[in-house]
Amino acid sequence: MQYLDELKSKIKEKLPDLDVVIGWEQGFDPLRATPLFMRTEEDVDKLTWGPLCVHNLATYLTGLKGKKVGVVVKGCDSRSIIELLQEKLINREDITVFGLPCEGVISMKKVARAVGTLDYIEKVDVTTKGITVSAEGKDYDLPLTEVGADKCGRCQYHNALLSDVFIGDTIDDSAEDDYSDVTEFEAKPREERLNYWLAQMDRCLRCYACRNACPLCVCRDHCVAQSRDPHWMSQDDTVQSKWFFQMIHAMHLAGRCTECGECERSCPVGIPILLLRRKMNKQINELFDYKAGTKIDAKPPLMAFKVEEDNINERGW
Amino acid sequence: MSADAATELRIVGFLCNWCSYGGADTAGVGRFQQPTDLRIIRVPCSGRIDPLFVVKSLVNGADGVLVSGCHPRDCHYSEGNFYARRRLEALKSFLPILGIDERRFEYTWVSASEGQKWKTVVEKFTERIHELGPARKINAEMLAEAKAMFATV
After folding, report:
1. Which of B35, B25, B16 has its CA nearest to residue B113?
2. Is 60 exceeded by the pLDDT of residue B2?
3. Which of A134, A163, A311, B106 could in theory staple to A122 by disulfide, Cβ–Cβ 3.0 to 4.6 A?
4. Between β-strands A47-48 and A20-26, what pairing exists: parallel, antiparallel or unpaired?
5. Does B56 reach chain A within 8 Å, measured CB to CB?
6. pLDDT of B3 strictly over 60
7. How far is A4 from chain B, CA to nearest CA, in Å?
8. Is B1 among the domain residues?
């Protein structure tokens, strides 16, 4: 919260040159923030900032292409912007990035588990190392280490990697990301892995929230999941087609996913789809030494090639 | 459906028009004996092959998928197979986490004159798939089993 006033004044300063600035405001209850589109100075006063601001606002940028847009970003969100710039999906001169240092955001699912219900949240206090939630007359002290999103526990980019205006002090300590969750899952027997995904995907509603929340899913009305030509996906609600949709999503994000975790957060039935993305990212990093959204002048690895690949041995079988 | 369901498995082959399809043709013209499990789909270039072709085949019941294109540097379109190589390699390393046996998918390079090599590739790959046996079909029974296994999730 400490940078909020400075952030507001900076946005007000830039607002006359911009069509809209995207940030967060309090949602329908004190626990939940919701995206805020600021067009006037009064709008800016509604702005909030803190560990409750979970949305990756870079999602909106491709839809607003051609407009002068300002956007408030955390470290992970800034990676999405870099990736979009790399792929020329947005124009650098059209966007103004308000970067912030972020110490982590809250996972609503974890709060729900700790509190037992999210129906009547009366008050939320943000402290330096966590949040205090008042629900149904009781107070719950929830440290960030307990209710923080998984991605924040392994965050290597607390500070916005790209910003026109950076507010606050940079955070230096970065966690180690050894992809232990991926390797742990992969150590299980194959049959179990297959069964795990079948059981998980069976719950999928095909609501496409994961796709819509993803800042790098940019096909909009041309998504292969819905197009009739090519007709990739049937309308059957078989587990194969649901699972296949997640494979489409993973393949289309290969080397592009910045692990912002929006897909998993937005999933109404809590399917751990980020695991698939992380596996793909791990492999891309091993094969092509590339992390999406970290270098602005790099080329996504699947849009390029080397005549002699360093890490591919295709002659061996 | 296979002509001989008892001994044949269903292997899908995506072959580049310019090299591997020609290579398979050369093998045929040379009258090399080869296993008949492979169903060939001819594509203009290995760069045309979306990794999702492979995934879709595997999810929907293929026992194996073989992709074959021109040798790197020999692409009819100069660089199609370079892109294919990256995609297919990424796909190959992605399969394990899905619980799909990555050995059921392979990609290789065969040129139009390499009839003998084509025969070897088909033989080796078919043999491998036969060792692995038929892939488990995803059906209601399997789903019920999976759900029972993760009933607590």
Report:
1. B25
2. no
3. A134
4. antiparallel
5. yes
6. no
7. 40
8. no
Chains A, B: CB contacts within 8 A come to: 119
Residue A247: which of B52, B87, B109 has the nearest Cβ? B52
What's the pLDDT tens digit per position in A210-266?
A: 999 999 999 888 899 888 888 898 888 899 999 999 999 999 999 999 999 999 999
Q: B40 and chain A: CB distance < 8 Å anywhere?
A: no
Spatial distance between the Cα atoms of B30 and B145, rounded to a whole number of angstroms: 48
pLDDT tens-digit map of B27-74: 999 999 999 999 999 999 999 999 999 999 999 989 999 999 999 999
Q: What is the rounded CA–CA span in Å between residue B140 and residue B143?
A: 5
Taking CB atoms and an 8 Å limit, are B97 and A182 in contact across chains?
A: yes
CATH number assigned to the domain comprising residue B98: 3.40.50
Segment B63-90 shows an average pLDDT of: 94
What is the rounded CA–CA span in Å between residue B91 and residue B76? 23
Instruction: Note whether A302 contacts B83, CB cutoff 8 Å.
Output: yes
Q: Please report whether residue B51 resides in a domain.
A: yes
Q: Rounded distance, CA B50 to CA B65, Å?
A: 13
| Cα diameter, chain A | 67
Average the pLDDT over A90-118 and give the result.
92
Query: Does residue B6 form part of some domain?
Result: no
pTM of the full structure: 0.90
List of chain B residues whose C-beta atoms are within 8 Å of the C-beta of residue A286: 93
Render pLDDT for B114-135 as a digit per residue (tens, 0 to 9): 999 999 999 999 999 999 999 9
Which stretch of DSSP H or E encloses residue A38?
strand A33-38
Task: Report pLDDT for A246.
Answer: 94
Q: Is residue B126 part of a domain?
A: yes
Burial of residue B18 (CB within 10 Å: 0-12, 13-18, 19+) is buried
What residues make up the domain containing B115?
Answer: 11-152
The torsion defined by the Cα of A140, A141, A143 and A144, in degrees rounded to 10, comes to 50
Tokens of B115: 């009839």
B144 lies within 8 A of chain A by CB: no
Annotated domain spans of chain A: 1-105+149-177, 179-312
> In chain B, how many domains are there?
1
Contact yes or no for A181/A151 (Cβ under 8 A): no
Report the gap between the CA of A284 and the closest CA in chain B (Å).
Answer: 7
The shortest C-alpha distance from A191 to chain B (Å) reads 6
Chain A residue at shortest CA distance from B80: A305
